[in-house]
Amino acid sequence: MSFGFIGAGEIAAAIVEGLSEGAAAPPEIFLSPRGRSRELADRFPNVTLCESNQQVVDRTAAVVLAVRTTQGEEVLSELSFTPEHVLISALAGVPDTDLLRWAAPVEQVVRVIPLPQAARRQSLTVTYPDHPVTRELFEPVGGVLVPQSDAELAVFGAATTTFAAHLDYLATISEWMAAQGVDSRVATDYVRHIFAAVGAWSADSSLPFTELARGHATPGGNNERVLAELREQQVPEMVRTALDRILTRLRG
Hints:
The structure is a single chain. By secondary structure, the protein is α/β, with parallel strands linked by helices. The protein folds into two domains: 2-146, Rossmann fold, CATH 3.40.50.720; 151-251, ProC C-terminal domain-like (ProC C-terminal domain-like fold). Helix content is 51%, strand content 12%. The chain has helices at residues 10-20, 37-43, 53-59, 72-77, 96-102, 132-138, 150-160, 163-179, 184-203, 209-216, 222-232, 235-250; strands at 3-6, 29-31, 47-49, 62-65, 86-89, 108-113, 125-128, 144-145. α8 (163-179) packs across α9 (184-203). The longest helix has 20 residues, at 184-203.
């Protein structure tokens, strides 16, 4: 099966790389003329750079929309689809009703939450509803997770918005170390090392995160003290409040 991508930013590029790099039988991929399309077409023989978004639509029945959310209506409204097309939307918070109206006469829409890890075939991609086309697209780059409802899809979408906050937390730690006199590169490498190890350890565990945190917080120890300080400052509650607001926005 072939796939078309309208929009070729970092997420779309990650999916294309995961599908193409070293694959024994990579799918045929058509890219719109924007973002990293030229680079990807030059790297992978299964990737074709199209002259326009409409040419992408004309070349394949499975079209991934990966533009900015604010551009969705404008981009789709300029294109001519058929009822046989499957529109795979990576636009956060845009409901099926809008997508179906903008891309009429399309009858099949699947919303997805792809991750940058797709480039390394390690992205567990949330897709809703379940569809054989999106399984064929995303299972090779890490697997598919299907929520039980549209409302649950929004919960996964909200949780995914915490990437930048998590990285900012790590940046705060490394910057604090540098302020204490540690070389900034050494501080960054050390923080990257310890949290990569924690991530790998948690990935191999079946315990809930609360249990993992308890296991690292020796009673009376410094880990427990920092955890208690952050809780006293209502940091977990601030995270919940931010997620609640994002969820409200995603659900419209």
